[in-house]
């Protein structure tokens, strides 16, 4: 319970982010964790740029891709305003228009 | 977007993984941690020249340090590896293999099938209008100052208490109805709490649910894949009636595939930056506030018994609750044991209040009687 008390006291100032907490036995060295994470990141998809290659994140340094994403956003903004209004008639009209345009 | 914090306390360590919901939802984050700590480097692997993993921790060339012995336990840098800095075993037989690359989570951004998403939006729109009280606002906590900070209270259940919860669930709500029972318990406490505040409106509770299967594919880790069930709960029902009332709504919403429609309609919002979407959503939610947020994750996505040689004792989530309703009751289960987390913005409920709510909900879960 002492660990949880420390956590409860600490996290008031930890910022507005969701967290997952793993409680482990013993004292894990910070250096060990850092090395492991470094290892994980360097050997994983996160830093190999593969996410960007599959349309999830913009490819680093690829200006054309950024531009195409920006244009896609601009083109589709009008669509996403409508569901935010959350109104049946708007949704129906938008769906009809979109079918026609497509 | 992601950060780790370490808190030391007595003979244990709390490892905090903070993440942004633009990238992951809670169960996805859990699965990502599982992926990271499940790298196949348990034996015979080296990284750089000072980070090796060996079976026995026996002597090597006297230069390199080893972090793990054969049992997977940390050896504080005193023991030495089988492998030298080039990853070649000193006995000349074994070679340090390449690190196994993590499986790549292939997925698209799903910016297509607009027609079906609009249809889902229409269904959900009608459902939301039906579920919200027609005669005014739902019971909700009053808003305080403008720049709130988030507070959490964590209340763990031990194995005996979790067994008690399972028994109560089976007896009062039925098989596989843990979420329904827990929601009824939380609603019973909030019913009492709102009465104390003089708010007599019906409660409306959004419940986060995960539409992924028990075994989550690595392709489903990223993006927020949460869907919702929405419950309208009348006041002063008493716990027994509340359970059957919630159960009835639960079955009806599953039958009408509401979680699917919520998820499908929400995909429309991927084409807007999250801050813009969040702004509009918050405006909508301020007009129609909900009573409290709730979720119960009964299936864990993190399955490691050890992390870097340390035994994992407990895992729980500390989710950010939406600005409205500003307070949430979240249950998770890890290694069979239940955990309760109350998350709230301090402009809605102070530390004392959420402490009270957490204890009251736990008492309610265990007692099986009304408050």
- Oligomerization state: heterodimer
Q: Please list the strands of the largest sheet of chain B in the order they lie side by side.
A: 6-13-12-9-7-8
Unreliable residue runs of chain B? 41-106
Q: What distance lies between the first and last C-alpha atoms of chain A, to the nearest angstrom?
A: 59 Å
Plain-language structure description:
The complex is a heterodimer of chains A (102) and B (371). Chain A is mainly α and 102 residues long. Chain A is built from five helices and one strand, in the order αβαααα. Chain A has one domain. Helices cover 63% and strands 8% of the residues of chain A. Chain A is flat. About 37% of the residues of chain A have low confidence. Chain B has 371 residues and is an alpha/beta fold. Chain B is built from eight helices and 13 strands. In chain B, the strands form four sheets. Chain B has a six-stranded mixed β-sheet with strand order 6-13-12-9-7-8. A three-stranded mixed β-sheet of chain B has the order 3-4-5, with no helix packed on it. In chain B, strands 1-2 form a two-stranded antiparallel sheet. In chain B, a hairpin with a 2-residue loop joins strand 10 and strand 11. In chain B, helix 3 crosses helix 4, helix 4 crosses helix 5 and helix 4 crosses helix 8. Chain B is globular and about 60 Å long. At the A-B interface, helix 1, strand 1, helix 2, helix 4 and helix 5 of A face strand 1, strand 2, helix 1, helix 2 and strand 6 of B. Strand 1 of chain A pairs antiparallel with strand 11 of chain B, so a sheet runs across the interface.
């Amino acid at each position: 319970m002492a660990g949880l008390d420390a956590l409860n006291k600490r996290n008031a100032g930890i910022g507005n982010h969701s967290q997952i907490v793993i409680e482990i036995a013993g004292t894990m060295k910070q250096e060990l964790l850092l090395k492991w994470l470094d290892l994980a990141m360097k050997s994983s998809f996160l830093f190999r740029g593969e996410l960007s290659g599959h349309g999830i994140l913009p490819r680093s340094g690829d200006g054309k891709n950024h531009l195409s994403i920006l244009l896609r956003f601009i083109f589709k903004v009008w669509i996403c305003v409508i569901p935010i209004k959350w109104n049946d008639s708007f949704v129906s009209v938008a769906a009809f228009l979109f079918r026609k345009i497509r | 977007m992601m950060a780790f914090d370490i808190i030391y306390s007595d003979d244990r360590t709390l490892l905090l993984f903070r993440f942004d919901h633009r990238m992951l939802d809670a169960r996805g984050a859990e699965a990502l941690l599982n992926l990271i700590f499940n790298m196949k480097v348990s034996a015979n692997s080296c990284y750089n020249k000072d980070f090796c993993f060996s079976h026995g921790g026996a002597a090597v060339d006297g230069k390199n340090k080893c972090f793990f012995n054969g049992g997977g336990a940390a050896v504080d840098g005193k023991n030495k590896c089988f492998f030298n800095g080039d990853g070649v075993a000193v006995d000349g037989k074994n070679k340090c293999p390449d690190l196994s690359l993590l499986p790549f989570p292939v997925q698209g951004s799903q910016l297509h099938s607009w027609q079906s998403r609009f249809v889902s939006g229409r269904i959900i729109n009608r459902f939301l209008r039906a579920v919200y009280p027609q005669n005014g606002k739902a019971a909700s906590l009053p808003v305080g100052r403008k720049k709130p900070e988030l507070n959490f209270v964590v209340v763990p259940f031990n194995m005996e208490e979790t067994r008690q919860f399972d028994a109560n669930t089976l007896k009062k709500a039925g098989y596989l109805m843990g979420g329904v029972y827990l929601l009824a318990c939380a609603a019973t406490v909030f019913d009492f709490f709102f009465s104390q505040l003089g708010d007599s409106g019906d409660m409306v509770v959004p419940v986060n649910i995960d539409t992924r299967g028990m075994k989550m594919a690595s392709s489903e880790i990223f993006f927020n894949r949460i869907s919702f069930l929405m419950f309208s709960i009348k006041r002063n029902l008493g716990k027994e009636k509340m359970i059957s009332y919630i159960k009835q709504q639960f079955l009806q919403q599953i039958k009408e595939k509401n979680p699917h429609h919520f998820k499908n309609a929400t995909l429309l919002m991927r084409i807007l930056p999250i801050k813009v979407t969040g702004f509009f959503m918050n405006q909508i939610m301020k007009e129609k506030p909900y009573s409290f947020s709730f979720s119960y994750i009964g299936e864990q996505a993190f399955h490691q018994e050890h992390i870097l040689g340390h035994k994992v004792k407990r895992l729980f989530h500390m989710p950010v609750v939406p600005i409205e309703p500003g307070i949430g009751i979240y249950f998770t289960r890890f290694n069979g044991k239940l955990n309760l987390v109350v998350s709230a913005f301090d402009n809605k409920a102070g530390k004392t209040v959420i402490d009270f709510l957490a204890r009251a909900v736990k008492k309610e879960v265990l007692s099986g009687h009304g408050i």
